[in-house]
Write a structure and sequence with these properties.
CATH topology of chain A: Amino acid/polyamine transporter I
Largest sheet of chain B: 9 strands, mixed
Number of strands of chain B: 15
CATH superfamily of chain A: Amino acid/polyamine transporter I
Helix content of chain A: over 70%
Structural class of chain B: alpha/beta
Helix content of chain B: 25-40%
Strand content of chain A: under 5%
Shape of chain A: globular
Number of domains of chain A: 1
CATH class of chain A: Mainly Alpha
Order of helices and strands of chain A: HHHHHHHHHHHHHHHHH
Largest sheet of chain A: none
Number of domains of chain B: 2
Distance between the termini of chain A: 29 Å
Oligomer: heterodimer
Number of strands of chain A: 0
Radius of gyration of chain B: 26 Å
Number of helices of chain A: 17
Number of helices of chain B: 13
Chain lengths: ~375, ~375
C-alpha cells in the first residue's frame, strides 16, 4: 500500500488540488452566511474561519512527514492497527462521500436556479457526477493537472464583478469594524466551515507529493489563496449590497453580477456561471477521488475505476436525497462541521498514536 | 486491460451525456417565446377585475416578432390578487412561454406605490434570477398601464421609448435613476427613502416631471424639478446636467449663464454625545455652456470666479432649504445619510432611529463649483 511513482504530484499540483478541494460551491453563499453571523464584519469571519484549517494542515503534514511514502489507508492501519485503522479510513470515506454528494447537490441547485430550471435534479446529478467520476478515475496525476488548469478558469468570472464594485461599492458597509463580541466571532468562524471544507484532504494527497519538504508550504499557500479569494467575494458583495441585503440573497456572489450591465456582454452572471461550472465540479471530483483511493488502498483493490463505479450510485443517491433547498443547506452545514471535526481530530489522533508508537519503538531499540 | 476499462468508462460518460442532454427539458423554441420589455403595476379598478378578489393590475408590453401582423407591439393587461396569479393568468392569453430575462423597465402607478411597499411589489422580480438587478424603475402619474400604451412615433414601441428615457436621464439632467437593486439597498441596508424618477404623459410625449421619495418603500413625496436636482446633488447621485442662473455681483444681476457639468458629494460626520453633525459638500465641475450677455469673458477679470460663486450661493440656498424641509416636514432620510449613520454607530440602528437622528442632527451644506473652461469662446 506504499505510494507508487505513477501516483505522484508536484507541490504546485498539491497547491491547486487543495484550493480546488476548498473552493467550489461555498463561495456563492459565503457572503450571506458570514453577513448573517457578524454583519459588516463578515470579512473578519472569513479570516477567522481559516484558523482551524491552518491547524489541521500543520497537524496532517506532521503526521504524513513522520511516515513518508505511506498512503492514508496504510498510515491509519500502521498507527491504529488493522481494524481500528480500517475504521478510521471508513470515517474518512464516509465524510468524502457525503461531502462529494453535498457539493454536487449545491452545484445542481445553482444550475437549476440559473440555467436549467426544468431539467430534473436527478439528471443533473447523474451528469455532473459522471464528469466527476471520469475525472476521479483518471488518478491523482490527472486530477492534479485538471485542478491546476481549472483554477485559471476561476479568475475571469472573479473579475466580472469589478464593474459592479467600481459603480456601487461603498466602504461604509464595512463599518463600524469589530462591532461583535467574541462568542459571535467564534460562531462565525465555525459557520464558514462549509466554505473551507476540503482542507482535510491534505492527509490523503500529501503522501503523493514528490518533494516532501514543500508540502507544508504549498498547503499553507493554498489556504492563503483560498482566504484571499473568499475575502474578495465577501468584501465585494457586502460593500455593494450592504450586510442586510446580502443576507436576503440565496447566492449573493452571483447576484452581485446582475446589478450592472456590461456593453455587448449584457448579462455577465450567466457567463460567470458557465465558467463556475468548471470550478465547482473540482471539489466533487477531489472528494470522490479521496473516497475511491482510500477504499482501493484499504481493501487492496487494483483498479480505481472499479471503486469509482461502485461509489457512483451511492453519491448520486445521497445528492438526490434532500427534498428542498433548506435540507441542502442543512446537509452543507453538516459537512462543514464534519470537516472541521475530522480535519482536526483525525490528524491529532494519528499524531498522538505516532508519537506513542515512536517512543515505544525507541524504548524497544534501547532494550535490544 | 486498464486502458480498455478507461475507454469503456469514457464511452459510458459520453453516452449518458448524450442520452440525458439537458436540452431535452429546457429547450425553448425561439418562435414560441414572448419577451416583455416593460411592465407596469397598478391597482385594479372594479371593471378591470377578472375575479372579485383581484387587487393588482399588471400590464406588460411585448414586442411582436411575427412578420405578418397588424401590430408590432402589444400591451397585455391582467388582474390578480397577487403578481404570481397575474403571471399565471397571463399565460392563458399566450401560447408562448414568457421570458422575463429581457425586462428593461418597471413603471409603478402613483396610487399603488403610495400605499404598497415597493419591496413586496417587486419581490417577484428580485426573486427571479433571470431578471437583472439593473432594471430601472419609475413612478408614473396616473396609471402605469396608460403609460405603456402611449402611441409613439419616433420609437418602435413605448417600452423602448421609456427605457431610453429613464436609462439616459442621468447623463443629461441632474435627475435620478433608481434600479431594482438600488431601491432594495436603500430600504433594506440603508433605511433611506429611494428616489425614483416621476414620469407624466404630456402633449403626446412622456416627460420627466421631477421625482418621488418612497419613505419606507411606499409613502410618496413628490419633488418638483428644482427639488429633484437639489436632492440628487445632496444624495450624491452622480449625474450630469445643466443649470441656468443669474450672475450676481454686489447684489446686482450682471448677466445670465448656463453651466454644464457633473456633481458629486462628500459627507463629513461628527458625533457629539448622541448628536450627529453632518457636513455635506456638493462638488460641481464643468464648463460655461452659454452666456446671455455675449461679450468676451475677459471683460471682467474675475468673471469665472463670479460665475462659480453665484452658482455656489444658489445651490447652497436650495440645498439648505431642502434640508430644512427634510428635517421639519418629511422627517425621514431623504438625503442618503443612513449609511453614514450606520457606519458611525456601534449600536444596532433601526429605521426609526435614523429618522429621529435626521430630524435632530445638525446638517450643514457646503458647495464648491469649479468651472474648467468657457467652451470655444473666451
Amino acid at each position: 500500500m506504499k505510494t507508487e511513482m505513477s501516483y505522484t504530484i508536484t507541490s504546485k499540483q498539491l497547491l491547486f488540488t487543495l484550493i480546488s478541494c476548498m473552493l467550489g460551491a461555498g463561495i456563492l453563499s459565503l457572503p450571506r452566511v458570514t453577513a448573517e453571523a457578524v454583519g459588516q464584519d463578515a470579512w473578519l469571519a472569513v479570516i477567522l474561519g481559516g484558523i482551524i484549517p491552518l491547524v489541521s494542515i500543520w497537524l496532517s503534514n506532521k503526521v504524513v512527514s513522520r511516515h513518508p511514502g505511506l498512503s492514508f489507508a496504510a498510515l491509519t492501519e500502521k498507527l491504529a492497527g488493522k481494524w481500528a485503522g480500517k475504521l478510521l479510513a471508513a470515517v474518512f470515506v464516509t465524510y468524502s462521500v457525503i461531502a462529494s454528494a453535498a457539493i454536487l447537490r449545491v452545484f445542481t441547485e445553482v444550475i437549476t436556479i440559473f440555467l436549467l430550471p426544468n431539467t430534473p435534479i436527478l439528471v443533473k446529478i447523474l451528469l455532473g457526477l459522471a464528469v466527476s467520476a471520469y475525472m476521479a478515475s483518471g488518478g491523482i496525476k490527472v486530477l492534479g493537472r485538471l485542478n491546476e488548469f481549472l483554477f485559471y478558469v476561476l479568475l475571469p468570472p472573479l473579475f466580472l464583478s469589478i464593474p459592479a464594485v467600481v459603480k456601487y461599492a461603498d466602504l461604509h458597509y464595512l463599518m463600524p469594524v469589530l462591532n461583535n463580541n467574541l462568542a459571535e466571532y467564534s460562531k462565525a468562524a465555525f459557520t464558514t466551515g462549509f466554505a473551507y471544507s476540503g482542507f482535510e484532504a491534505i492527509i490523503v494527497f500529501a503522501p503523493y507529493v514528490l518533494k516532501k519538504k514543500e508540502t507544508l508550504k504549498a498547503a499553507v499557500l493554498a489556504l492563503i489563496i483560498t482566504i484571499m479569494i473568499y475575502l474578495y467575494a465577501v468584501i465585494t458583495t457586502v460593500t455593494v449590497f450592504g450586510p442586510e441585503l446580502t443576507q436576503m440573497f440565496t447566492w449573493p456572489t452571483l447576484r452581485l453580477l446582475s446589478v450592472t450591465e456590461i456593453p455587448v456582454l449584457e448579462r455577465i452572471e450567466f457567463i460567470a456561471i458557465i465558467a463556475w461550472i468548471g470550478v465547482a465540479i473540482r471539489p466533487v471530483s477531489n472528494q470522490y477521488f479521496c473516497a475511491g483511493l482510500i477504499i482501493k488502498d484499504a481493501f487492496g483493490i487494483k483498479s480505481l475505476s472499479k471503486v469509482v463505479a461502485l461509489l457512483y450510485p451511492i453519491i448520486a443517491a445521497i445528492a438526490w436525497y434532500p427534498k428542498n433547498i433548506g435540507i441542502v443547506f442543512r446537509l452543507s452545514d453538516f459537512v462543514g462541521m464534519y470537516s472541521l471535526i475530522l480535519g482536526t481530530a483525525l490528524p491529532l489522533l494519528l499524531l498522538g498514536l505516532s508519537l506513542i508508537r515512536g517512543k515505544g519503538r525507541a524504548r524497544d531499540e534501547k532494550k535490544t | 486491460m486498464k486502458k480498455r476499462h478507461r475507454y469503456i468508462l469514457l464511452s459510458s460518460v459520453i453516452i449518458i451525456n448524450a442520452l440525458f442532454l439537458a436540452g431535452c427539458w429546457d429547450e425553448r423554441e425561439l418562435d414560441e417565446l414572448v419577451i416583455p420589455i416593460i411592465i407596469g403595476y397598478d391597482y385594479a379598478n372594479e371593471e378591470e377585475k377578472e375575479q372579485p378578489d383581484d387587487k393588482y393590475l399588471i400590464s406588460a408590453g411585448f414586442p411582436i416578432f411575427y412578420e405578418d401582423t397588424l401590430q408590432k407591439y402589444h400591451v397585455d393587461i391582467t388582474s390578480g390578487s397577487m403578481e404570481g396569479e397575474v403571471v399565471n393568468r397571463r399565460n392563458t392569453h399566450f401560447g408562448e412561454q414568457l421570458i422575463p430575462g429581457q425586462l428593461q423597465v418597471v413603471v409603478l402607478g402613483e396610487e399603488l406605490i403610495s400605499n404598497e411597499n415597493i419591496i413586496e411589489l417587486t419581490d417577484i422580480l428580485s426573486r427571479n434570477p433571470a431578471v437583472k438587478g439593473a432594471i430601472p424603475m419609475a413612478v408614473s402619474k396616473g396609471k402605469a398601464a396608460d403609460m405603456l400604451s402611449v402611441p409613439v412615433k419616433q420609437y418602435p414601441n413605448p417600452g423602448i421609448y421609456i427605457q431610453k428615457l429613464i436609462k439616459n436621464i442621468r447623463r443629461t439632467n441632474f435627475f435620478p435613476t433608481c434600479t431594482l437593486f438600488e431601491s432594495n439597498r436603500h430600504i433594506i441596508s440603508n433605511h433611506t427613502a429611494p428616489l425614483l424618477p416621476y414620469i407624466v404623459h404630456e402633449n403626446g410625449n412622456i416627460v420627466f416631471a421631477g421625482s418621488c421619495l418612497l419613505n419606507g418603500g411606499k409613502r410618496i413625496v413628490h419633488l418638483d424639478r428644482e427639488k429633484t436636482e437639489t436632492a440628487v446633488m445632496l444624495r450624491g447621485i452622480r449625474s450630469r446636467g445643466m443649470i441656468t442662473y443669474d450672475i450676481i455681483e454686489n447684489n446686482k444681476v450682471i448677466g445670465q449663464i448656463t453651466f454644464e457639468g457633473k456633481n458629486k458629494r462628500k459627507v463629513k460626520v461628527k458625533k457629539e454625545g448622541d448628536r450627529y453633525i453632518f457636513n455635506i459638500l456638493i462638488k460641481l465641475s464643468g464648463r460655461l455652456y452659454e452666456r446671455k450677455k455675449n461679450e468676451p469673458v475677459i471683460d471682467h477679470k474675475d468673471f469665472i470666479k463670479l460665475c462659480q460663486k453665484s452658482l455656489e450661493d444658489l445651490i447652497r440656498k436650495r440645498a439648505e432649504d431642502f434640508v430644512t424641509i427634510v428635517q421639519e416636514e418629511y422627517g425621514f432620510d431623504a438625503l442618503e445619510l443612513g449609511i453614514e449613520i450606520k457606519g458611525h454607530s456601534r449600536e444596532k440602528i433601526s429605521k426609526e432611529d435614523i429618522d429621529r437622528i435626521i430630524q435632530e442632527s445638525e446638517i450643514s451644506v457646503e458647495v464648491k463649483v469649479c468651472i474648467d473652461n468657457a467652451g470655444g469662446k473666451i
